[in-house]
Amino acid sequence: MGCFGLSFVFHSPTRIDFGVDKSKKIGDEMKKMKATRALVVADPGLQKAGIVHEIVNLMKEKGIKTYVFTDVVPNPRDTDCIKGAKLAKEKKVQVLVGLGGGSPMDTAKCIGVLMTHRGTPVDWDANKRQLQKDIPPLICIPTTSGTGSEVTYWAVITDTKRKFKMSLGGSSKLSPTLALIDPKLTVKMPPALTGATGMDALVHAIEGYTARVANPISDALSVSAIDLISRSLLKAYRNGQDIDARTDMILASTMAGLSFSNSDVAGVHAMAEALGGVYDTPHGVANAIFLPPIFETNIPSNPAKHAKIAELLGVERGSKNDLEVAKEGAAKIRQLAKELGTPTFRSLNVDKKDLPTLAKYADENVCSRSNPVSLTYDDYLRLFEKTQAE
Predict the structure, then answer these.
(1) Are residues 198 and 173 in the same domain?
(2) What pLDDT does residue 2 have?
């Protein structure tokens, strides 16, 4: 197929500095920004593990007055972001540091929004309003290999009143300034977290590849990310000290983040974020649960692309056509999730009476419109019911 008439925009304003021990450059990078006051946003687990202390010391050695905010939960809440922004304003913070997985990085992004915009996080739900100003400089240091938030211009925050996960951003105004990506920071991830975040990265890569708004560059990034994940996720899960596998996984996570930022996520995220908002289910777990049914639903939209994913995941084509290969791909994804210890939807004990609410929230999710097959409230309800029955 020729490229005449092809039209798309690809934008990646975040500077990426990738490699072992790159996190140790944080103090020098602060000096380059001429910053003197910074807020590190992290979760309590990283503080307990001593990683926050290490990063803070590197900044203090360069004369940076550093404050720490650790009121961060797995599905970050609007109320905590408001508290963090209050601290940042009181301390006259100039630079934000998002340290950890997607939750601290998204919390840092939301804090940045509240530092430069009036109102609350709910006021800046992308379904309602687009950001008007750039957030303050933000340095992201990921310690998991899943969200890709270090290079995305989205933050997913829970509206605690509605129990709804809303998306803020959608433009470079929310982009991190710098991503310091250090594979060594991921070696202490326990197996369960390795598996959940790895499946999160796989979903980002697959949805970035199959979404309606995908483009040739996002496609290339997604294909490479899926290939890396296929080769290294189980290795990292089984041996966290395998630095080669850890490097592959954090690279794949970043590549998938770049892909879906310039494409989109879709139905898997619509369902996962609905569940996370109501039941506080970890995002990677929810994504892993809903990837197979959405993958199967989407196959008819582009059998060739879904077959390509299946082959990257290890399905042998032989004499099979695209549809047959793609269907085996769905089975391959289910098997991978099982090997990673992913719980079933049924095991989460979700009340059946909440399924209509989950379907409503999935239908209202901003990313649902990018799903390659049009999905309605009734479709989502059927998918929730079917997945719960399996």
Answers:
(1) no
(2) 61
